[in-house]
Each structure stands twice: as C-alpha cells, then as structure tokens.
Amino acid sequence: MTVQSLPDARSHEARLDRLAEIAVRVGLGLAPGQELVITAPIEGVGLARLVTEHAYRAGASLVTTLFEDEESTLLRYRHAPDESFDKVNAWLYEGMAAAYRSGAARLAIRGSNPALLAEQDPAKVARANRAMARAYRPALDLITQYTINWSIVPFASPAWARAMFPDEPEGVAVARLWDAIFASARVDASDPVAAWEAHNRELQTRAGLLNAKAYAALRFRGPGTDLTVGLSDGHEWLGGSTRAQNGLVCNPNIPTEEVFTTPHKDRVDGHVSSTKPLSYQGTLIQDIRVRFEGGRIVEAQARTGEAVLRKVLETDEGAARLGEVALVPFSSPISKSGLLFYNTLFDENAASHIALGQAYASCIRGGTDMSADELAGRGANTSLIHIDWMIGSDQVDVDGITGEGSSEPVMRGGEWV
Amino acid sequence: MTVQSLPDARSHEARLDRLAEIAVRVGLGLAPGQELVITAPIEGVGLARLVTEHAYRAGASLVTTLFEDEESTLLRYRHAPDESFDKVNAWLYEGMAAAYRSGAARLAIRGSNPALLAEQDPAKVARANRAMARAYRPALDLITQYTINWSIVPFASPAWARAMFPDEPEGVAVARLWDAIFASARVDASDPVAAWEAHNRELQTRAGLLNAKAYAALRFRGPGTDLTVGLSDGHEWLGGSTRAQNGLVCNPNIPTEEVFTTPHKDRVDGHVSSTKPLSYQGTLIQDIRVRFEGGRIVEAQARTGEAVLRKVLETDEGAARLGEVALVPFSSPISKSGLLFYNTLFDENAASHIALGQAYASCIRGGTDMSADELAGRGANTSLIHIDWMIGSDQVDVDGITGEGSSEPVMRGGEWV
Questions:
Q1: Which residues pair with A263 in a beta bridge?
Q2: Exposure check for chain B: N or C terminus, fewer CB within 10 A?
Q3: What sign for the dihedral angle of Cα B160, B165, B169, B175?
Q4: What is the Cα–Cα distance from B373 to B387, expressed in whole angstroms?
C-alpha cells in the first residue's frame, strides 16, 4: 500500500486552481463544445492558464486569451501623437463581437491598477474611452443582453494590491488581496459549487420579495443623500445567477452580493453623495455629489477626479441618467472585510449603488425580446457607458414607495428590514 | 558643468532597445499616423513594450499587441476534446485582416519553442494547422502581396535557447542566442540604420544580376541532391527591403541574407535532400528526401517528423509544389556563426532553400496587379501553406540554365561564382 500526500487545499496554488474551476463551472457554466474568449491582464497569465485547463476539461472547443498590458497603455499616453486618442482598434472589438455571435462564452479576468491613468490628461482619457466605448458597443450589447453566458473574476495584480495596501511590502499586499478574493469567491468552502448554489438561492429569494412588492420607486436617505429613484415599468429585480439566452446559467460577477434592477430614466430626483471612491479607467473619483432633476444629473461635483467625472457625464445623452440601482446590505461579507478595493467588482458588492448609463434589458420583464423603442418606453436608459458607484452605508436608509405613494422601510442602517 | 554617464550601448537593455528601433524604422518603415498590430510570445512582453514605445515615438496612431502563450497551446493538446482540433478562432484572424485592410502595419515577434508539439499527435497538429491556415488566409494574402508594410523580428525565448544550447544553463543559452540575434540584426553597428541600408543595396545588386540573366531554371547538385527548379515566366529576384503597395519600404525579415524568386509550379524535377532540420509548428523534421516530377513531390521521406511532413504535403494541391526558391551563400554571417537555430527566420538565411506552398506575387513582374488565373498562368503556385526548408551547403553547386538550355555556374561550394 502506498500513501500519497494530498495537496494542501489551502496552498495558494490550490486556491488559485479552485478559483479557476469556479470561474468555469459557476461563473460561466461553460457548455461542452463551446468556445471561450478570455481577457486578462498579462500578469494574470497563471490564472488564465488554469482557467484554460479547466475550460478544456469541461469540453471547451477552443480557448483564446487576449492579454492586456497596462504598461503599453501608459506608453501610449506618454508617447503617442494627439490624434491617437480618437483612434481605436475597432477590428479587435468587432472580432470579439463576432466570437460571441458565433456562440463563444466570455470571461474577463480583472485586476486593473486603479490609479493607472491618474496623472494623464483627462481630455485624452475621455477621448480614448469614448472611442473604445463606441467600438465595444456591439460586443457589450451581446453581453448585457445575455445573448451568451459570461463572467468577470478578479486577479490580485501587484498594482491593485499596492493601491489597497500602500503601507505593506508588495508581497504582503498581494497576499492580503488574494485572501480577500478567495474569501469573496467562496474558494475555501468545502464544496465551493454547492456554496455558490446556496448563495444564489438566497439572492434570488431576496429579489423575489422585492418583485412581489413591485415598488414604483426607492428613496435613499443619509448624510448628503435624499434621492428618489423611480423604477422602470415592469422592472424585475435580479441577483446571483442568470440564465443567458443560449440557455446556459452563469454567474456574471464573482463575487456578487447585490440584487439589482432598472430605474426609470426620467424619474430620478434629489441629491446623492458617494460613500466609496470610484475607480474609473485608472482615475480615482472621490466624494461625488450630484443632483438629479427629471432623471438627469443637473449638478455634479467631486473632491478628486471631477474633470474625468464631467467628461464621463458628457459622453452621450444617457450618460447623465441612471441605468441600474442595486441593494447590498452593509453586513455583506465584502463590506465586513472593512477593505476598500478601489475596484467596482468588489466595492459595488459592499454597498448599495447606482449606475450611470446603459440599462440591462434583462431587468425588465420580457425586456430581452423588446425593441429599443419598447425598452425606452418602459424607462430603460441607453448609453455607451455603464458605471456603478456606491451610495449605501450603515447610515443610509432605503424606503420603498408603492404605486399609491405610501412608503415602507426596505433597509435601515444599511441592513434589510 | 555636470558630466552625465552615457548608457552603455552594449548593455543588454540598450541592445534590446536598438533591436526595437530597428524593427520599427528598418523592419516596418512605419509611417506617422499608421496603426500597428504586433504578435508576440508572452515572454517577449519586454521587447513588445520597447517596440510599442518606438512606434509611438515614430507617430503610430495605435499599437495593439496580441500575445501568444505556448503553455495554453499545450493545454489544448493535453485536455481539449477531439473536435477541438478542427476549430479555429476565425474571428481573430478576420480581425487582423480587417486591421491590415484599414492600413495597419504588422510586426511578428518570433521566438517559438521549436519542439513545442513534438510529442503531440501529428494528426491533431495537422488538423489544427489546416484550420488555422484557412482562417489566416485572407490576412496572409494581404501580407504576402505586400498590401501593407510588415516585418518579422526574433526574440530569444528560453525554450528556443534551450533547444539550441541543450548543454548550457538556461541563462547562458538565452544570452548566447541574444548575441546571435543582435549580431544578425546589425544592432552593434555604429549606425544600424545605415548598416541596413548598405546591406539592402548589396542584396538588391545581387538580385539585379540574376534578373539580368533571366534564367529559365536553376539546377542544384550535391550529396543526395540533383534538382532542377524551373523559374516562373517573368519571375523577378528580390532581396532586402521591399516597397509595399502602400508606398512604405519595409524589411520583411530581420535578419535577411537571401535573394529569392518564384519557381514554376509545374517545372521542378529531380531529387533533393535537406541540409538543416526544419522546425515546423513545434515538430522537428530532419533529413528530408523528396523526389519531384512535373513540379509535384511524388516521394517523400524524413528521418524524424515524417508523419507531420506527409500531413503537410496533403494540406492541399499546392502543398506538394514549390512557391519559392532562394539563394544564400555559405559564407553568410548566420551560416558562419555555425549555429543551428531550429528557426526558419535564421536557418533560411544560412543556406539556399526552397519553400513548399504559396508563391509571392511580388516575385513576378507586375504580379501584384495580376488575377489569380494570370499568376497561375505564369507558374505561380497556390496553397494554404508556405514552408521554407534548407537545401544549400558548402557541398552544393548551383547552375543557371538559360532559355536556350545552356548552363553556367551560379554558386560553387556554396559561394557566389
């Protein structure tokens, strides 16, 4: 008899491997024979390879990873001629859209440096983002409309970890960020797939309760905030896993703690203050204060990144209106970590939030089969952008306003009532 | 007065930077405002970044690098289902073709592991290559027809260096390979751009002498070789830099020591033996012996990789016919290094060679404006593949056969007469 030592399930390599397996089985719900397109930071090649292996083991027909190099992005800002910033590699975005149209699933491995472009000219950043958003639109539509199964999973890049733990040595910072990622992704559960199934049921129960209420609006009140967010007609609360139009069930965000729906683009009024910094394309936008009238932002300020925020709001007509509202209790595991991630994938799951820009058709009953005009008629917003920012905290209360105008508590002190 | 120490032009970093500059200025002849698409092994990110910087400094509008990961390729062979090997990410090849059609230049940074796929099933390798070649065809046509300026530059990957210097520690092997690359790319010349201009003039003079001769055929004779290669009607010898159809002058291969033209697809007869191993898509094919009749290979053997060779010849009708013949003196600098590179970019510049498959329209006078039928009428071959292999050595003589059938010496003992 030989006794083989088992790999330590808690070793970094083993946990990374489980994260890759969760990405393929829970995040994507990849089908045998399906193609997979991965985008990943070049430092994340190790995780990309583990995902590639699990995808092939799950029967993937072909896995292609498009690696992104932030250093090359910076070289552009440092050395490219001014005309460069209206130019985009449309051929690559068209290629990705073609892949999705032919049935490929999509996984984004994300670990951006939150401050990558902080010192670059905001006008150039805005021009580059606008050109990119236009080129990306057809592919993004296939994603937001869940034509295909897709997911986003985090990667602890050194630059991201340094931004979160500026006083720690880089190795310690990266290890702490990985710990937070593994915990939020339920990697250490004895059966991660079962843990995700239970978590999805919980989020779907919460969404079901809100759907039964069918509120006309939500009202957020807290320090610097008194905002009424009208909900779109026939809105549907969603949370956890989603069945894509190709029939496959995916968890589009790992981690996820939110339930969310589509606000009415013309029925948002009042003022609201952000409760966490927003990291947008490499710029940190802190202490946002905006005022809405008839759904549109009419005043906007921020302590840092205000120029970038203003450029964002000018992207198009829909950029100054809401496309999403989401509720997350203050006691969510990510919130409890006490960490500020400077990364929407995490921070939006630590606090209730709203998103500027494009709405999800899937958050309107029957929405994925509706025309653009029908969706707009229900109040769904349209924009090249979709940017989440956090407005919840333990000091923010949320009320539901019924169709008859009466009010009932939904959250108190950041917790479900 | 302050005295600043100059960077050592011979340091590795400085030489790598000069290679990047040569790639942009000599290899591509990149125009201000032009887009650039780079393909690079993921280990070559450092060189890719230097090229990116030089490209932006030269006025590039946008640089996109598509990184290739050989580990992920191996994961496919190890874990993907059998159906995978007929599947290709056509959307990515179509995207590259779209980039070239819209005017982008193309740089390939190459440092493949010559033995990557040596232990994989040759049938799967052949299926994957055939699917890839079909998808790549539109992009490859834009390259081989010089619709755009393009170039290939080498990168000393650890796997390639290990294959060349199996008895050296990896660090030494990589350093020796870099030395050979830098020497062949004229990086250490006091003015590398001027050195390349002189080298290009020399190759173009040699091509001019052969064009003045306008031989009907070449005859190669040596150990295991007596091969008559008929040349296409109106063939043109080329070497060194090329003016692409967009008017930009590029050096498509760095290094380059060859003059080359298009044989007649139906007029190749006799037998020929390879004089160096051929590294084809990760398989080493050694000691090739083939016999031609009426332009077509009718017998083929190899000491290693024969199964892969046979699959290659079955790719399509043109895969068993010649698309290129090239002359390189035995005294060329790469040949004199005495090294075997297991890499066509180098080994083809150390010895006269022939290529199976697709012909270059640019090697026929007026060819880039001709229809496919006109080109075929001149004898230009068509195929999904283009694979160079070496048939020259210091023991091989080359004669030129005139239209009247008389013979005159072109090379003796591997040197120009």
A1: A231
A2: N
A3: negative
A4: 23
Instruction: Provide the β-strand partners of residue B300.
Output: B290
Domain B12-184 has CATH 3.40.1830.10: yes
pLDDT digits (tens, 9 = 90+) for A15-37: 999 999 999 999 999 999 999 99
Say whether residue B52 is in contact with chain A using an 8 A CB cutoff: yes
Spatial CB neighbours of B204, under 8 Å, sequence gap ≥ 6:
B239, B240, B241
Give how far A184 is from chain B: nearest CA, Å: 27
Give B204's pLDDT tier (boundaries 50, 70, 90). Answer: very high
Q: Tally helices (H) and strands (E) across chain B.
A: 12, 21
Task: Give the pLDDT confidence of B254-279 residue by residue, as tens digits.
Answer: 999 999 999 999 999 999 999 999 98
How far is Cα B295 from Cα B83, in angstroms, rounded to an integer? 35
Distance CA B327, CA A405 (A): 88
Q: Do A64 and B35 touch (CB under 8 A)?
A: no
Is the CB of B245 inside 8 Å of chain A's CB atoms? no
Q: In what helix (H) or strand (E) does residue A68 lie, and over which residues does it extend?
A: strand A62-68
Question: Strand (E) positions, B124-281?
Answer: 150-154, 217-222, 225-231, 238-239, 242-243, 249-250, 259-261, 263-273, 278-280
Name the nearest CA neighbour of B209 among B404, B411, B360, B72: B411
Strands of the sheet with B35-41, listed across from one edge = B62-68, B35-41, B105-110, B150-154
Does the pLDDT value for residue A281 go beyond 80?
A: no
Nearest chain B CA: its distance from A39 CA (Å)? 11
Structure tokens at B303: 């000491």
What DSSP element (H or E) covers B189? none
Nearest CA in chain A to B75: A53
Q: What percent of chain A has pLDDT over 90?
A: 88
pLDDT value of position A336:
87
Range(s) of chain B covered by CATH 3.40.1830.10: 12-184
The pLDDT mean for chain B works out to 94
pTM (2 d.p.): 0.88
